[in-house]
Amino acid sequence: MNIIKQLPLRIGVGIILLNNKNQIFVGKRIDNPKNFWQMPQGGVENNENFLHAAKRELEEETSIKSIELIKELDGWFKYDLPKNLLGKIWKGKYRGQKQKWFIMKFTGKTEEININTTNPEFLSWKWIQSSQLPDVAVDFKVQIYKKLKKNLSFLNKN
Question: Residue 120's CB: how many other CB atoms inside 10 A?
Fold first, then answer.
């Protein structure tokens, strides 16, 4: 059997953060400074509840605390790492991620957003339209971003 397929998926969370114009927060990763952007996401610690993990990751990556939960998306969103990243990310313990995603509204002021955190992950950040999500994602996350975009169709009905 393929050793890679035996590796587990890392349990994680992701945050679709909307501003008052229903645009989505994305950051350009420090470790992949090409023109790829991602939404805040991260791992779940032992015995940590998913919503708490999402709020913690959002604050760790962006300093944002002023949020309202809109909804937790149903089910899991999964992806496998490409071969060139296997063994390099997460100390080689995982083959990809299995994530719970949350839609949240940013209720603070722009000055609250600070990506120069203790362990920075982003070089820069911006707000984008939901239709742009698949276009900005790194290749191995495009399918997840397409599924997430479908979960945002309610934004166009307002």
Answer: 14
Whether the CB-CB separation of 124 and 115 falls below 8 Å is answered with: yes
Q: Which of 36, 45, 48, 40 is nearest to 14 (CA)?
A: 40
Read off the CATH number of the domain in which 49 is found. 3.90.79.10
Pairing state between β 96-106 and 9-18: parallel
| DSSP track, 69-94 | EEEEPSS-EEEEPPTTTTTTGGGG--
H or E element at residue 67: strand 67-72
Domain that holds residue 148: 3-157
27 φ/ψ sector (left φ>0, alpha ψ -120 to 50, else beta): beta
Task: Give the pLDDT confidence of 71-121 residue by residue, as tens digits.
Answer: 999 999 999 888 877 777 777 788 889 999 999 999 999 999 999 999 999
d(CA 146, CA 152): 10
Q: Look at the chain and report how many structural domains it folds into.
A: 1
pLDDT per residue as tens digits for the range 30-69: 887 688 999 999 999 999 999 999 999 999 999 999 999 9
